[in-house]
Amino acid sequence: MKLPSLLLALWRRFLLILAYGAGLTLLLCVTFLILKIPPVTALSSLCIGAFGDSESGHIYSISETLIKTTPLLLTGLGVVVAWQAGMFSIGGEGQLLIGALAGMAAGKIGEKIPSSLLTLIIILAGVGAGAFWGYLAGIMRVKRGVQEVISTIMLNYLAIYLVGWMVEGPLQEKARRVSQSDPLPDSVLFARIIPPALTNGSIARLHSGTLIAVLSILVVSFMMYRTRTGFGMRLMGQNPDAAKTARYPIDTLRLRAMAISGGLCGLAGVIELLGVTGRLYANFSPGWGFTAIPVALLGGLTPIGTAASALFFGALTEGSENLARFSGVSSVLIYVIQAAAVLAVVGAKSWQSLRKEA
Amino acid sequence: MLTGDKMSVYSGTFIGSITMATPLLLAALGENIVQQAGIVNVGLEGMMLIGAFAGMLGTRQFENPYMGLVVAAIAGLLAALLFAVFVIKLTANQVVVGVVINLLAIGLTGTIYRAVFGSTGTFLTISGLPHFFQGITVLTPSALFVVPLIWWALFHTRRGLELRACGEQPAAADAAGINVNRIRLIAVLFGGTMAGIAGAFLSLGESNTFIENMTSGRGFIALAIVTSGRWNPWGCLAAALLFGFTNELQFQWQALGLHLPYQLFLALPYAATLFILASGGKLSHAPAALGQPYRKA
Questions:
Q1: Which residue among A140, A220, A301, A308 is least enclosed by CB atoms within 10 Å?
Q2: Which of these, A165, A178, A281, lies nearest to B260 by C-alpha position?
Q3: In angstroms, what separates the C-alpha of B217 from chain A's closest C-alpha?
Q4: Which residues contact B71 (CB under 8 A, 6 or more apart)?
């Protein structure tokens, strides 16, 4: 009895994702038509950029797409946790940066620690710092009634300037030329998981940190849908009065939601540090923490949906670089697509609920 | 001789602070009205960017910076109309729609800019607003003039009372015969217009060109100013000047040869805002229904 219903639910979810994908592709085509670019060539160029072609091989491009997906996925999961709990945090960017900063600092301080242990310490430092940054916004909401929308904006800027100062100050490279830190030793960084034999020599950068991100989908899903904390958070997000009546500890849940959300964003930062950049610099993040919001919203604020959405936009980001080369269309076009898609979804949902009430 | 140098540093800092504060103040005054009506517009940043871009386009089209200003105001108004349709008519989440407006603004202005002017990197200059005195354009005195005007309108007129009622007790306001969503719509449109003008300050009053993402967070600072200014125009003025002053200080400080990390000055206003918010007691002065959509029962 149980298996068929599960299969049915999965099938429905699959159809939904398919429908969203079709809608987004349609949106892309319309945008290309407006810009007077032939949609078919543009789409195929996007696909080649994101997934490769038979000439250059697929594995390298797919690896790059997954690298772009990883931070989007983790920060997106962070948004899912906070927003499901009714905490409209837009602090992912700051939490990500603080995570990367703490990871870098831990790596520098702990130079003498054996490398595999140090990797673990760096990850924990990043997650902890991100969680703390989120917790700050939570405690201000709980104790002082400060709206998290505003406080997370302030915390974002504090993080940006803190990183900016650190990479020109205490954490700057020994040569002191560029606003960046020295790289962490290779032994500390994540392993590349694609053997070079598969890519004809070009080095695919996919790293084991992506596996941690995939694992996080399961952990967040379990927490949100199979634990009392998760249930309380979702109830609180939908109806705070009901959660209060049911004697859920509202303040504790808010703090937990913000800390977990921040921890996930911190993890995103530290994984980027250990998997891709190897060092910290000014402008470390191209705005993942902000893009995470439309990614999570288009994923319906569910972990699985967010994973699909992050993959879509990761592929779009990677593909658009290829598109830009021949059409002069910039990658900021992705923002237009995201904005239009979120407006369509939000508009349709609001309209539906208004009609139901009427 | 030395005192003369110092004097010019002081007066330079003062003028610099005021010019730096002008776009922040303009946007914050609009947002003040919006938030008093019970709506948080996180899309302020995007509306400013749209204003900056439209101001540049309008100035080129009509070959007149004042027409550019008008075009920027209209563009801000249109962006606010989009925001209002979703937030007021469809009662969608205000943070969501605000974030979307920001994305849309970066995407649209960037795409159109590159499509029309190419990404060749050639510097696009326009003849911006005339400077009366050391970077002071018509916008700076106007912004200062608007402060008492908005304060008076908010706290000493019947309309202002009605507007604040929409932000405090929308249900009660409705019962008293006030059309809550209409007043909120007017407030949002006003906020968007002000944001458009604030954005035009950047392209027409300051740099005489458009650069992608040139607002670089000023809309978010304006949000901070409204909050730390305690939802009061005079408070906004003080907070905007503080932001302008600390921002200016970093340049002067460096000019005086003092080696302090400039990020400290840039971060100071944000830290101050957080501190004011955290110390100010629970929910003090914030409109009670801030962020909640109003549906007629």
A1: A301
A2: A165
A3: 9
A4: B54, B55, B57, B58, B59, B61, B62
Top residue of B49, B50, B263, B273 to mutate, by most chain A CBs within 10 Å, is: B263
Closest residue by Cα to residue B198 from B66, B34, B21, B60: B21
**Sorting pLDDT into bands at 50, 70 and 90, what band is B1?**
very low
Instruction: State the DSSP string of B201-229.
Output: IIIIIISSS--TTTTTTHHHHHHHHHHHT
pLDDT tens across A191-232, in order? 888 887 777 767 788 999 999 999 999 999 999 999 999 999
State yes or no: pLDDT of A277 exceeds 50. yes
What single DSSP character describes residue B136? B
Is B97's CB within 8 Å of A343's CB?
yes
Q: How many CB pairs under 8 A join A and B?
A: 143
Q: How many helices (H) and strands (E) does chain A have?
A: 13, 0
- Pairwise CA distance, residues B93 & B43, whole Å: 12
Q: How far apart are CA B36 and CA B153, in angstroms?
A: 12
Rounded distance between C-alpha atoms, residue B73 and residue A76, angstroms? 34
Mean pLDDT computed over every residue of chain B: 87
Tokens encoding A210:
């992506």
Note whether A350 contacts B: Cβ–Cβ < 8 A: yes
Residue A329's pLDDT band (boundaries 50, 70, 90)? confident
List Cα–Cα distances, A11 to A7, A8, A100, A300, in angstroms: 6, 5, 38, 16
With CB atoms and an 8 Å threshold, state whether B274 touches A149. no
From B92, B95, B274, residue closest to A149, measured CB to CB: B95
Chain A residues with CB inside 8 Å of B100's CB? 294, 338-339, 342-343, 346
Contact B215, B76 (CB under 8 A): no
Contacts of residues B183-186 at CB distance under 8 Å and 24 or more positions apart, as own/partner, are: B183/B37, B184/B37, B184/B38, B184/B39, B184/B84, B184/B88, B184/B294, B185/B84, B185/B88
Bridge partners (DSSP) of residue B133 are: B136
Please name which of B8, B33, B126, B119 lies closest in space to residue B72, comparing C-alpha atoms: B126
Beta bridge partners of A207: A192
> In terms of pLDDT, which residue wins out, A226 or A322?
A226
Residues of A in contact with B49 (CB under 8 A): none
Residues 6+ away with beta carbon under 8 Å from B138: B129, B132
pLDDT per residue as tens digits for the range A148-176: 988 999 999 999 999 999 999 899 998 88
- Whether the CB-CB separation of B147 and B240 falls below 8 Å is answered with no
pLDDT tens figures, B53-74: 999 999 999 999 999 999 999 9
| CB spacing of B119 vs A297 below 8 angstroms | no
Q: How far is Cα B287 from Cα B283, in angstroms, rounded to an integer? A: 8
Enumerate residues 86 to 145 of chain A having a beta carbon within 8 A of any beta carbon in chain B.
Answer: 88, 90, 140, 144-145
Select from B249, B194, B256, B217 the least CA-distant residue to B51.
B194
Alpha helices in chain B (DSSP H): 2-36, 44-62, 65-84, 94-117, 139-156, 158-168, 170-175, 180-200, 218-228, 233-255, 262-279
